[in-house]
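Before the break, one more example. Copy the sequence into your notebook; we will annotate it together after we see the structure.
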Amino acid sequence: MSKAPSTNATRMLRQAGVAYTEHLYRYEDHGGTAVSARELGVAEHAVIKTLVMEDEKGAPLIILMHGDREVSTKELARQIGAKSVQPCKPEVANRHSGYLVGGTSPLGTKKAMPVHAEASLFGLDRIYLNGGSRGFLVGLDPNDLDRVLKIRRVSVAIP
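Here is what the structure looks like once it is written out:
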């Protein structure tokens, strides 16, 4: 496979002095975390989805969730003090993040957005999340990600 791309996400990690590993895999449209977990040979629970959502006022936010879980938008809204939260349309998410859906990283986004994460992902030794390009994940300690992004922890997972 080819060389890992240099993205806003990897530049941000390097600038922050975060140790991370690069993982390329064959991207499949609509394959999601099941495909990346299979290709990397890791548990889907350790592959973290980056979802761009918006509150009732249209203010964008990022939620990081285990690949094998869904987000309770009702509970997320409650925990962050919003009336409602919903996923952004793909073109809106692309505009906020600067990344294409399927290649969205919480790192190095075009627009600064608050980042929320399922609290249980900090119990993992290592997580894999998008490195800013389709078919490219970075592996790192979730506490390093927290240090760089100042993440707000929430408990909004639906099995």
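The chain has one domain: 8-158. The chain is about 25% helix and 30% strand. Try to locate both features in your own notes.
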